[in-house]
Structures
1.
Amino acid sequence: MAEHPHATLVRKGYEAFTRGDMDALRGLMTSDCTHHVPGSHQLSGDFKGQDAVIDMYGRLFQETAGTMQVELRNILVDGRGHAVAAHHFTAERQGKRIDEDGAIVFRVVGDKISDLDECVTDIDKGNEFWS
């Protein structure tokens, strides 16, 4: 059985992110794509538009000196434009380490990602790590 096209799109996004291939990521998103990051730290909030989203991804790598690793665990789709990706991530920053599970709820319009709602296991832990 072939993978659903929305799952394939999300998988390609994770692969591009892991490689640091921002041009490939840009090609997978709508121009007005928004990534919502939970918490109350410097990298939380709503990043609207490809440039803002790509800049935020660059800051993730910069802030963690390239130590951020994301392992995609599973992708679930509803066939109506939503996909949920479960992942595990680790990173080090300023003598701190984070090691936890997370998920992103994707909204797909046509064949592009238009919205990403990020969910984390422990918002307080994330706030501490990124602050």
2.
Amino acid sequence: MTNLAAFPTDAKSMKNARVELKTSNDLKDVLREAAMAAGLDLSAFILNAALERAESVLENQRRRQLSEQSWQQLNQLISEPAAPTLALKALMRRRNSNNGNHSK
């Protein structure tokens, strides 16, 4: 997992984008206290936490992507559905016969 230390911080040109947030004073105090406990300034602490979360979200997204072979298998299963089993046919017959017996 990447952390803020993996990004160059010595070059001013690397820090040319700004992120602004609004929060309550109480939440800012909690974040500042946690940043101090971690030995980071508030911006570095928030960026590090946001980056960890972003990487987690992106990793989860990547895991949902199918390989080409899996994609082809999925499409084949969708386009050529399996024939219903005897159990499924019996269930559908029971369901259809029960629907006809209800009076309103």
3.
Amino acid sequence: MSDDARLIKQWNRLTRVHRRIEARMERHLHRQLGLGVSEFYALRTLSEGVAAGTGLLYLSDLANGTGLSQSATSRLVTRLQERGLITTHTASEDRRSIEIELTAVAHDVLRLGAPLLSQAVEEVVR
């Protein structure tokens, strides 16, 4: 087997494992927290931005952090706002930008969701 074929085979294996982990996470998150994986990833991205010292994240930062398009990110932000997980406001430095902040409820969701992620990884990797 050539090196290229071996790399592609490894990549395919990693992709399958990743999909299985995400499917397992989706089930756990939906069952226990009523969230989808993209919503949980968005909250984690926002939390990591806060931990990095920025305090707030812009909509474009969230799009980059989740790998979603601007329009998909806007829809995601609307869902998170409706659930009381984030607040948004116009940025003071640039009135065209939207700043996003996690609520206390979101911090609780992240605390409860982190073990679900670990559980999903453990179940699939075994």
